[in-house]
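Morning!

This is the sequence you dropped in the shared folder:
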Amino acid sequence: MDITSDTHSQHISRQFNQELEALKTQLMTMGGLVEQQVQEAIQALLEGDSRLAEKVRDRDRDVNAMQLKIDDECTRVLARRQPAASDLRLVLAVIRATADLERIGDEASKIARNALTLIDGGNNVRGLVEVRHISEHVRRMLRDALTAFARFDTELALQVVHEDDSVDDEYGSAMRSLMTFMMEDSRAIGPVLNVMWILRALERVGDHADNLAEYVIYLVKGLDIRHMDTAQIDENALTRKE
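The structure's back. Tokens below.
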């Protein structure tokens, strides 16, 4: 049967309930941190704030530490409780989600490092409008994916899955524009390449947010949609019953 927000309050063991809720809480905390990392990395770039960029770059180790801590807690739950059915899916989904969140943290660090290079160069940079637009889009995807996970909301998760196609289109358009600009002005190649790496990192953030949304479908419906096209997802994800 489908998971609802009340499913994990039905255990005989109150401590087990608390352990599962603690996993979700830690995941949301980690999600909030990586969302902040992405936001501050872009802010540092757009405002030319090298100190903020350095802060984002150096805080990546905090994200890594959170992943290790959550993975350790998940391992303890699996060993101690041997959960079945929906509870097992929850623990597995948390493990997968933390891996994607850690990679989002890596992408934020990459953005910060490229921002530092651009700030140090002190040049007028082409492509920042595209960076701002795509960053807003993928940050919204990430926020919605985390909300969907917290609420077991498959409809919101499906919206995130569909948004990834739009981000891919925006990314492709921005890259083509920057390639044309580099061909017209070879002096801009260095800075534009840094912007292109930033755009690539943002596109990857969108991919990881999409993964988080897919884990929500798996968690709630027991349906793995990772290798389905959008038509198959729409047909199965909201109608599937265990």
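Headline: The helical segments are 14-47, 50-58, 60-81, 85-121, 128-151, 154-184, 189-221, 230-236.

More detail when I'm at my desk.
O.
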